[in-house]
Amino acid sequence: MKRMLTSCFGLGRLPLAPGTWGSLPPVAIFALMWHFEAPAILILIVMAALALAGSVICVKFAPAAIAATGKADPREVVADEFAGQAVTFLAIPFLITAAISTRQICITTVLGFLLFRLFDIVKPWPIHKAEKLPKGWGILADDLLAGIYAAIVLLLCFWLWIAKSGA
Nearest CA to 85 among 61, 53, 132, 59? Predict the structure, then answer.
């Protein structure tokens, strides 16, 4: 059961790009909540809960996957990507107004996903150093930092592009 949770119910066991698959549930939940006009505070609470759940699962249960695979950061563990992707969307609900178009929400959602994946893969300083932490902490920390980096860039993009231009 521990490995099932850390793999986000098997997403981490898909053959290509397991981290990308593990990032998708928060993206879908964020997009659906906006589509169905959930209040900003509810979206914030859900994204925070997803980030917390993914973090706790990763720290608590990733050592089982590490022991089973013999790898310090097993590909199947994607609860960290799940958590980091949710972090990316934490501040966005308070920037989006009722006047935002469906197109703008879609662009914001896709951009948040792409930014998170970029920072997770490239790992600029100090993200790469965070991987050195022990066990589940090292698996998780780099993704939380990637989520923070992605959130900052997403907020800047949103503010400079969507909010200013009305694109």
Answer: 53
